[in-house]
Predict the structure.
Amino acid sequence: MGIIELLGLAGSVSLLSGWRLYATILITGLAMRTGWVPLPEQLQVLDVLANPWVLGVAAVGAVMEFLADKVMWLDSIWDAIHSLIRPVGGALLALAIVDPGDPTWQVVAFLLGGGAAFAAHAGKASARAAVNMSPEPVSNVVASTAEDVATVGLLALAIANPVAAAVIAAVLLVLSIVLIVVVGRAVKRFFRRTRERPGAV
């Protein structure tokens, strides 16, 4: 694989870890251990992801995240707890994929991986906070399920075709940033109207 494909794979996996860190680690590790999906050579050296202990912890985390993400407000608490964990995890995954013999690309991968994971996490957390403002709880389950499906599908695509996955990941990254800006402005308008109401402190 060339550097473009490697960066595409690293960026895609990092972005997905901003949504579902444990599921990303679990699926990648299972694919490596069982040979379900042909992984690139650079990813084959990550024996640590296929370690039974790592898979076990990732499986427990994935189940907890899957359940927590379906419950209104509990999903936002879970996102707040993982505000540091997901970006660091995404950066380390990206760093592990890139050739360790090239420190320049390692730094690039680490920074881009952490940035992509953080942007995806921030976009997800912002969107879920906005969804939680809705009195209708079904929308929360629909949004969470869509994230589950998108994560698994994009992860499979990232492993099979890193360049195509990188293009999709770039689009999702831009949408995440737009979402952060839109939700941020909506929150500001909400608090401004609250302060302007008669009797507001």
In short: Residues 162-196 form the longest helix (35 residues). The chain has one domain: 3-196. The chain has a mean pLDDT of 80. Residues 165 and 171 are 10 Å apart (CA to CA).
